[in-house]
Amino acid sequence: MSKIWLVAAQEYKRQVLTKKFFLVLFIFPAFFLLMFAIVYLIVRMENRNIPVGYVDHSGFLKNPLSAPKQEDAPDSSQLLPLIPFQKEQEAQGALEEGKIQCYYILPPDYPENKKVGLVYFKPPGQNATRQFWNFLQMNFLRSLPPDKASRAVADASLVIRWPEGGVGGGREFSDKASLNMFLPFIVGFLFIIILFISSGTFIGALVEEKGNRTIEILMTSLTPGKLITGKIIGVIAVSLTQISFWIFCMLLLAFMGGLLLGVNLLQNLSLDPGVVLSLFAIALPSYILAAGLMTVVGVSVAEPHEAQQSVFLFIFPVWITFWLTKPIIENPNGPLALVLSFFPLTSLSAFCIRIGFSRVPVWQVILALLILCLSAAGAMALAGRVFRLGMLRYGKRLSLKDIFPRRSHE
Amino acid sequence: MNKAEQNMNAVQIENVSKSFGSTHAVADVSFSVARGEIFGLLGPNGAGKTTLIRIMLDIFKPDRGQVAILGGPMTEEKFNRIGYMPEDRGLYQNITLERCLVYLASLKGVPPAEAKQRLKIYLERFDLAAHKKKKVKELSKGMQQKAQVICTLLHEPELILVDEPFSGLDPVNTQMIKDLIREMRGRGATILMSTHMMRQVEELCDRIILVSQGQAVLYGNLNEIRRQFSGHAVLIRTAGELPRIPGVKQALPQNNEIKLTLEEGTSPQEVLRELIRQDVLLEKFEIAIPSLDEIFIRVVKKGGA
After folding, report:
1. Are residues A81 and A205 in the same domain?
2. Is there a single domain that holds both residue A101 and residue A25?
3. B90–A221: do the CB atoms touch at under 8 Å?
4. Would you call B63 and A392 a contact, using CB atoms and an 8 Å cutoff?
5. Are residues A133 and A57 in the same domain?
6. Are A320 and A343 in contact (CB under 8 A)?
7. Which structural domain, as residue segments, surrounds residue A71?
């Protein structure tokens, strides 16, 4: 096996077979799962499957039409029974016995005033309120044919379609699949998190090898170029493991939420493979660039904590980009978005924001890729130069003069 | 190894210089290490020994001069034929001893399965077999030192560069390493050893170079060097009192003998003539061969003066 692959495999195993890796791997899905579970439980707790009563003094609901199904209810197959009572005392008795969760009172002037009374011990669930509201709407529209009345009462759907050739490039946004707009952003955000984690891990590994002097053994076993390349491949493999697992967890969560639990928001999820491919293509040289720059920083500093602190240098541009999210979204193909997309340290974060809200032209992806690849190659060349000089300097910083001497002997 | 390589020295350093900023770490040093010999690289702290080793290993490029290792410039293929034990020991601390050593051997071109087989033998020999599944950081300093020795030898190198191989070892393990060095030489390996332990150098090395302030101040066959430095002292044993002998700077009793340190310009023959002239009853007269320690101190002090 080539020494590059040996180093990559060792780097991969060294990082993956640790408690820290598994903690990070599971902490994000666990966090999302927890958030999802909390939201789901809140909705479930608010929705009580106990019948709703009503007392109609106006005669408006004498021969009522039933309410249509609620599509966004967690369990759309269930309709709550609506029980009519002749007298309020009867309804009150049923409420006290727990046979109904609440009852509505339609006063005699209801057709004119459209005001109803509501009696409960504990506020009724959203499903109960909405169902009774739909029931009233349905009966207001009783003059229409039942199927038309049902369609009118059912929730309206908002669909926004960008014109072909415009900013959105023919993309479609539906409020029933509103998460689709944020999915590229979420996936891009995962790439960025991994960029931070892998940069930190990479610099940590270098500092450790410098600290425990293993580097001297390594430098007499293979060339610095092969050593760094192997390490970068290893770190990228670790990153891909993480992101693949997270995306798998997201899909699993969406499947569970959408199909098994009937959460409508998660049922129409879709992610354009082209978007993922573009993000991946931008992320890959971004990782190499970061690893190259991390090598330069990691071997130039004297103390391990200085190297760890330097990760901030890479977080800062990304933070700036996210801080500028609003102007970027407002004008996704404007000068600010373009500058940030083509600046190597902000490319990934800028594309993450833009790609969710606009159709990024292919030439921009290619140009950004080209700039990133050139920057990554430059960073790697610099890393190779600095590596030889810096890795064996214990307790001493490497200055620019050391890296670029007036008279080169190499 | 081809025939041309076989005939060449294992290490050939010619007029090598290296500076770091304004510090001249190595200045115009030349020496060679023949194949199959044990060579001592000596010098006080900061003399430039480690820099020289790093230049040999192509970790540092020399500012001037030529370096030939195993018959030519360093190549990646040659890395596999060289074993290096740095002064600052370097092993991964957070992985098991076995995994660490197998990985480092695989980087030297040994297939992992074969490295495991070889490692088994070494671990048993060094009493580390029971610790192979322990993390390196859980091992004692002495154990880590032995593990480092294994790491240097596991790929059966032709040229072995060891920086302070005996530091941190007890007498039993020191003897083990000495035996191992002799064994490696017996197998045809060339060993370049940098150490401060002159007794080990006297026992093991064929030739030495003494470096001080970046410059070679002594170089050659160890016995010849010691003979060169002899003549400044004689060991005598007498039956009676020792009279005052002109040209003798100091007379120090050593066991049953007396060591006479001679003044500059006084030869042992002159002292012997004087002793006979004064009718001293001599039981023993011997030219004292200085220890390497004495030579080291004398040369380094002279260089520093």
Report:
1. no
2. no
3. no
4. no
5. yes
6. no
7. 47-156
Q: Please list the residues that pair with A127 across neighbouring strands.
A: none
Using an 8 Å CB-CB cutoff, list chain B residues near A208. Answer: 93
Q: Are B167 and B198 in contact (CB under 8 A)?
A: no
CB neighbour class for A385 (10 Å; exposed up to 12, middle 13-18, buried from 19): middle
- State the Cα–Cα distance between residues B263 and B249, nearest whole angstrom: 5
Residues of A with CB under 8 A from a CB of B: 1, 3, 6-7, 10, 14, 208-209, 212-223, 226, 388, 392, 394, 409-410
Is residue B212 pLDDT above 80, yes or no?
yes
Q: Are strands B82-85 and B23-33 parallel, antiparallel or unpaired?
A: unpaired
Question: Does B19 contact chain A (CB < 8 Å)?
Answer: no
| Same domain for A386 and A276 | yes
Distance CA A101, CA A122 (A): 8
Kindly give, in sequence order, each residue whose CB lies less than 8 Å from that of residue B43, ignoring residues fewer than 6 positions away: B49, B194, B210, B211, B212, B300
Tell me the HSE value of B263 on the side-chain side, using a 13 A CA sphere: 7
CA distance A22 to chain B (A): 16
Find the radius of gyration of the CA atoms of chain A: 30
Interface confidence, given as ipTM, is 0.77
pLDDT at A408: 43
Distance from CA of B267 to the nearest CA of A (A): 49
Alpha carbon distance A382, B101 (integer Å): 30
What CATH number corresponds to the domain at position A58?
3.40.190
Å from B210 to nearest chain A CA?
A: 24
pTM, full prediction = 0.71
Residue showing tokens 């080539």: A2
Taking only the tens place, the pLDDT of each residue in B268-288 is 899 999 999 988 888 899 888
Are A153 and A130 within 8 A, CB to CB?
no
CA distances from A176 to A36, A153, A257, B61, B203 (A): 18, 16, 15, 66, 86
